[in-house]
Automatic annotation (TrEMBL):
Protein name from the UniProt record: Neuropilin and tolloid-like protein 1
Entries under Pfam families matching the protein: CUB, Ldl_recept_a
CDD domains noted in UniProt: CUB, LDLa
Organism: Bagarius yarrelli
TM regions (residue ranges): 323-345
Keyword DNA-binding in annotation: no
Domain CUB: 21-135, 152-267
Superkingdom of origin organism: Eukaryota
Upper taxonomic lineage: Eukaryota, Metazoa, Chordata, Craniata, Vertebrata
Molecular function as annotated in GO: ionotropic glutamate receptor binding
Keyword Transmembrane helix applies: yes
Keyword terms, alphabetized: Disulfide bond, Membrane, Repeat, Transmembrane, Transmembrane helix
Xref: Gene3D superfamilies: Low-density Lipoprotein Receptor, Spermadhesin, CUB domain
Amino acid sequence: MIQITLLIVKNNSGVTPEGLCGAWFKNPDGGSFTSPNFPEKYPPDRECTYIIEASPRQCIDVYFDEQYAIEPSWECKFDHIEVRDGPFSSSPIIGRYCGQQSPMYVRSSGRYLWIKFVADSELEAIGFSARYNFTEDPEFRDVETPLTLASCEFEMSGSEGIVESAMVEKESESLQTEAVDCKWFIRAPPGSKIYLRFLEYEMQNSNECKRNFVAVYDGSSSVEHMKNKFCSTVANDVMLLTSVGVIRMWADEGSRKSRFRILFTTFREPPCEAATFFCHSNMCINHTLVCNGIQNCVYPWDENGCKEKRKTTILDNMDHTNMTIIGVTSGVVLILFTASIILQIKQPRRKYLVRLDEFDPALLPEPLEPPLYELCALRSTASAEDFSGLRRSSSKCVNTHHCGTSQASNGSRTDLNLDVLAETTSIPSRSIVVMKHSRSLENTEVCEVEDELEDEDLEEQPWRSVSGHECSVHV
């Protein structure tokens, strides 16, 4: 029995067949693994990786035997065991161990545990022996619904294709109340590679990888071939280096609204063949993918210069014959239109004179007559010397129209009495015609002035008109 156990341990350690080192364990009943050649000394220059995978909602417990010896060093920089909480070398580190003291017990927080054993070229020891088992994840103890996983796998191939989570519902692989662990296997032609571009991505419970995630594998579905794992709010494009790609979606009962949509494109590296298109990114894709409305290259070289898709119009449905008929008809119409324009230009133009009817003066507007002003005309001319004694007055006619009805005299005006002037003999008599602002001469007043008035009498007597109205004269 002891020999059988040792044989099983050696098989788990990867010692047989010779040259292999490391393994991937997911036995639901647990198991064990050891360093190479345990309990003998491990060989120099070795690096072995062990990945343990538990079922969903389970954790991993690892127990190291007391029989344990690894070359001691400061901070275990030489021979050592490195344990990480997750499936990758970049997962959070749990510890690094060496020396003569066994780490005894290690526990993961999730479904995966990553363990690496490193041996340099000097000072070998017996190494280690460990066993593992799986326990219930404490985060899911309150979940009453038992976890049931149905078989969910899809096979895809071709120069391009769409991998989407909606295929699970379309194929009725599982109910909405069940957890899913589905895998899509993409198989490219031999010698080809696969480019994956996310078109849609959404995790219902983001940043909770225990409840939902999308993982990409390069070569197989083994955890050691896992290329990327997405469970946050963003997913990046992935370039696979082999002709087999695997996409895995895990979602528990409360994460079934998680969804994704991925475009895969198979390609070859340059030099490109005749039936391929060079993407300017070390990709040669099938020529049928050019201008298909989908970006298959890393950069949109395959869609540059392509006409945008538009709705079918009448012109799209016309054949060569219809286009010829339309062209000929349009040419004839254009020629006729040009000829008509030339004829119109060369044709002499007739001049027409429009004779007006008999001129009607009544159509002319009435002439505007100037207003009549009151004028005072002297009956006889007299020299300026005869009036040297007269006082110049700045007074105006008292009446409204220069010579009108008299008003009360003031200090600035001089009233001339024509009766007194008539009695003087020194100044010859004169007559002054007074005209009012009127359109007729009916109210014309004549003022007679005697030339014989003396200077003194002129100052004492006011001017008077023949009709008895007062009149003012400016000298």
